[in-house]
Specification:
270 residues, alpha+beta, Heat Shock Protein 90, 2 domains, five-stranded mixed beta sheet, 17% strand, binds adenosine-5'-diphosphate
């Protein structure tokens, strides 16, 4: 196990300690807003205070993610229902996608089943890939989330028909803080840490991640997860939380095309 970086450990402790006061102050402002009628000025100021606390919260989450990447902690395991992981991401992001007329199409076999893994971190993987598919898409674009399983693996892919990625950038895509700086492309907010976290989570589940992409045609991010990561102990496993299944296909009911995604034979799958 590699030694922990003391600065990152300090960052983790500070970020962790900031979580409680931020949550508390947010709670008090919300209570304050519900306590009675406010003047227009009071409403505006308290909305601003909430918005800046939300930005702080995002920053703290980012710092905790950076610390998590550095820490060599084993994953926590549950039986994760793959349908839930995908439906939750689609529901969470369809609003933000809808604002730019981007359709999200879901194509998941009902028998795709479960994988053993950390539910929160695996949700983060799917959410992050779908969020990127929205961010780096064009207005009126589409996103296809697909999942298939066999006895040993589950293959999840997120495809978009957005700006795509030039071949020269592909080897660096999962490096921390890597962002493609394109002067022509509209600036998109980001930190460059998301895909590094995604790869970190997939690695910890002994899975593989790879991307197929072409500029101006779009990208497909593929994740292959073993149903049972080797080092996971069976006696630590809890039953999956089942939720109601969401309707398949996209918001416009369009045809969901087949993905050709098979893992490439080269390197670590990138
Ligand atoms: P962020 O989105 O915060 O910049 P990520 O680590 O998630 O960080 O992504 C790294 C970079 O990879 C992005 O800045 C973007 O240039 C590129 N990228 C990620 N997903 C896509 C996508 N679906 N289409 C095109 N480019 C992408």
């Amino acid at each position: 196990m590699k030694p922990r970086d003391p600065w990152i450990e300090l960052l983790r402790v500070v970020a962790h300690d900031l979580t409680a006061p931020i949550t508390a102050v947010k709670g008090y402002i919300e209570l304050f807003q519900q306590a009675g009628p406010m003047t227009e000025k009071q409403q505006r100021f308290s909305d601003r205070a909430l918005a800046s606390l939300e930005r702080q919260e995002e920053l703290v989450k980012l710092l905790l993610d950076i610390a998590w990447l550095d820490a060599n902690k084993p994953i926590e395991v549950d039986e994760c229902d793959v349908v839930n992981l995908i439906d939750n991401a689609a529901v969470m992001l369809e609003h933000v996608a809808g604002r730019r007329n981007i359709d999200i199409h879901v194509d998941v076999n009902d028998d795709v089943g479960t994988v053993l893994g950390d539910v929160q971190r695996l949700s983060q993987v799917v959410n992050n890939l779908v969020f990127n598919a929205v961010k780096y898409n064009r207005d009126g674009g589409s996103i296809w989330i697909r999942a298939r399983g066999d006895a040993d693996h589950v293959h999840i892919s997120v495809r978009d028909n957005g700006r795509g990625i030039a071949a020269e950038h592909l080897p660096y895509l999962f490096d921390p803080y890597f962002r493609i700086d394109s002067n022509n492309a509209a600036k998109v907010e980001g930190t460059g840490i998301g895909l590094a976290i995604v790869k970190g989570v997939v690695d910890k589940h002994q899975g593989r991640i790879w991307v197929e992409s072409a500029p101006n045609e779009g990208s497909t991010f593929n994740v292959l997860l073993p149903r049972r990561p080797l080092e996971v102990r069976k006696d630590t496993v809890r039953a999956p939380i089942k939720r109601k299944r969401r309707k398949q296909t996209g918001t416009n009911g369009a045809h969901v095309p087949e993905s050709n995604g098979q893992p490439p034979v080269n390197g670590d799958g990138v």
